[in-house]
Structures are given as C-alpha cells and as structure tokens.
Amino acid sequence: MPLSQAGFGREVRDAMQARASHLADQGLAQRDGQRIVMQRDLLATLRRRELDAVSDKLAAETGLPHVKAQAGEYVAGTVRRRLTLSSGRFAMIDDGLGFQLVPWSRDLERKLGQHVAGVAKDGGGIEWAIGRKRDLGI
Asked: Is residue 21 within 8 Å of residue 36, measured between CB atoms?
C-alpha cells in the first residue's frame, strides 16, 4: 500500500481534496477531471473579499462609511489603526467623514494617531507626503 493511502499522507490528501472542493464551491476554482484549475486572479479576489469583510466590520464598529481609494485620488486623515490581515498589513485612515484602508508602510509607523496625506498610486500603494518639505508652500 502506498504511503499516501494511510496515516499522515492520507490526511494530507483528504485535506487537499476538501480545500479544492471548497474553492470550487466558492467559484474560485473549477474541476477538470482529477485536476483543479484555480481562477486567474485568485489572490486578488481573496484579498478583495477579506478587505470588504474587514471594511464592513469597521464600518459597523465606528459608524463611519468605508471609502475606497482610487488611483490618483488624494488620501488624507488620521491614522487610527494598523491592521494585520492574511493579505498583508493595512492602515485605517479616518478623515472624519469616512475611512480608507490603505497598505501599511514604514512611513506610517510613527504617525499612528497623527494626520497624514498622500496620493493613491496605480499599484495600490500610497505616495505619502510625510514630514517637512523644503519648498515654498501656499
């Protein structure tokens, strides 16, 4: 009897089959005979689902609506929280009217509870304008 038919090998095989069935039931994969074919943008879909769930929870908890940051948009507000999720670390930026979840960066480490501003980039990050600048401000 092959090792994968008994003991730990069997448990692993059963767990993999259960996971494949779960992904197929969720519409994240398709069965092709014995193979399982994952959705093309599976990680992005899982990340989006996780962020939506966390956003809904925070909105219920704070009473503030979630506002998604689009590329090129100005992002400003107070850094309220650092969130560690399966898909990475995020900061909750509260502008008083709503909140945004943005990818965490080392620049935000010392700014917890303080006001920050930046511009959302195409790749999903934020270009922060943190600290004093050496230009003539208006």
From this structure: no
Inter-CA distances, 46 with 35, 52, 71, 108, 129, Å: 21, 10, 20, 25, 30
Based on DSSP, count helices (H) and strands (E) in the chain, helices before strands: 2, 7
Residue 105, both tokens: 């960066």
Alpha helix (H) residue ranges in 26-117: 42-62
**What tens digit of pLDDT does each residue of 51-78 get?**
999 999 999 999 999 998 888 889 999 9
pLDDT at 133 over 80: no
Strand 115-120 relative to strand 126-128, pairing: antiparallel
For the whole prediction, is pTM greater than 0.85?
A: no
Given a contact cutoff of 8 angstroms between Cβ atoms, the answer to whether 28 and 38 are in contact is yes
What span, in angstroms and rounded, lies between the C-alpha atoms of 71 and 43?
Answer: 20
Parent domain of 22: 3-39
Q: Are residues 60 and 113 in the same domain?
A: yes
Q: Do 122 and 89 share a structural domain? A: yes
